[in-house]
């Protein structure tokens, strides 16, 4: 890994993380796909599936028989692990649930907020370099707990024309209603606009490649989206008390996602930097996905030497990482200095992979610095709120003059009239 100073890294962080030119090239292809699916529906989906996934499909929807077949293709150990994870994830997200509320601030006035789940949500599950049953849980379980009536998944088919069995089993365990064998930007188009087979949704959630991310950006407004996810990233803040092998393993756990992933470690002394770098090189050699992780580490890996932990957390807040691990002597004491991070892992035995699969908090997190203003996926992403207002005749009459004054100041006479006509009517009674 590149070992650099804090000042040099600070300069790197001031540069744009996205390439306008690269996005422009992507957008040209993505917009063509969106337009084609909107125009030609299922026919376009089948054509793109044959072109990109090299699979010809008779039907897009996963059948009941395929769900049953999938159950026989996964191990009992997988089922047991997923059941345990499901319990943790559901329990955590249950705590986020919001409820409608009402208040009476004064006589004759009732105000409130009505919380309503979305009707139909689409979840994109990647299926290219790996299968992600954990992502099914992280997206579908919060939607289910929120009370979403219809939850559907789109995911690319395998070369045999079927969906990965682990994904299908997870979908059934999470209460997903429909699964479709469609991937890429064309899947986002189908969810946003609807086709003969796939009905339009209210919101699209879930991670994907660059084409999926740009497609989500372009359909926003037609439907809601969770976020525009970039490459995965981790930041480990460590001092001399950390286990270098643990820190290295966690950095590589993100590097193996894809070549664009970023693994950043911030330390407060040169010896710790050297030990972690040695461990990264040692462990990298034994990885199954060595080629991907090596490219990620070479391009985006950094070990940053800060003057002290105060400077380390200043850099953390500038980076606003998706995942932040605090591997210091007293990690709980350092929590107060973190302002921007998607998920925060405290101590040597709370690795990022714990959050990926098992602990309960969501692993769909803001990336590319968006943790400075965005939050992890949660129950709140699958609910909408309506304001409730009720005034009695007497209460409204007291407010009418103030309403009319503000309306006239803005030059909106009809607004003022709507208040004055009611006050006048109440005097006539």
UniProtKB/TrEMBL annotation:
Enzyme kind, highest EC tier: oxidoreductase
UniProt cofactor note: Binds 1 zinc ion per subunit.
Residues that bind Zn(2+): 254, 257, 356, 415
Binding-site positions, substrate: 232, 254, 257, 323, 356, 410, 415
GO molecular function: histidinol dehydrogenase activity
Keywords associated with the record: Amino-acid biosynthesis, Histidine biosynthesis, Metal-binding, NAD, Oxidoreductase, Zinc
InterPro entries: Ald_DH/histidinol_DH, Histidinol_DH_CS, Histidinol_DH_monofunct, Hstdl_DH
Annotated active site: 322-323
Superkingdom of origin organism: Bacteria
Positions bound to NAD(+): 124, 186, 209
Pathway: Amino-acid biosynthesis; L-histidine biosynthesis; L-histidine from 5-phospho-alpha-D-ribose 1-diphosphate: step 9/9
Catalytic reactions of this protein: L-histidinol + 2 NAD(+) + H2O = L-histidine + 2 NADH + 3 H(+)
Stored HAMAP family: HisD
PANTHER family per record: HISTIDINE BIOSYNTHESIS TRIFUNCTIONAL PROTEIN, HISTIDINOL DEHYDROGENASE HDH
Role noted for this protein: Catalyzes the sequential NAD-dependent oxidations of L-histidinol to L-histidinaldehyde and then to L-histidine.
Family: Belongs to the histidinol dehydrogenase family.
The protein's name in its UniProt record: Histidinol dehydrogenase
Lineage: Bacteria, Bacillati, Bacillota, Bacilli, Bacillales
